[in-house]
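User: Can you predict the 3D structure for this chain?
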Amino acid sequence: MRPDVDALATFVQVVDSGSVTAAAARLGLAKSVVSKRVTQLEAQLATPLLHRAPAMFPPPRRAPCWPSAPAPCWRSSTPWPTT
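Assistant: Here is the predicted structure, written as structure tokens:
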């Protein structure tokens, strides 16, 4: 079976962009669509094409609060971070 041309073009964008997120932005697609296309291409070729690793960023010591958070958090005076 021949690889899907859209999936192949999407994979090239992921490699050129350096990430699924950047490729999705370039292509004007949702990240899930880009990821699904690459996964389908890997299945068609029967080989992994990308190294997938979990994010290596630890969670913040204290995440911003919202009303549905546990009581000690939403009662705090910690504001939402602004960037």
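Residues 5-45 form one domain. DSSP finds four helices and no strands in the chain.
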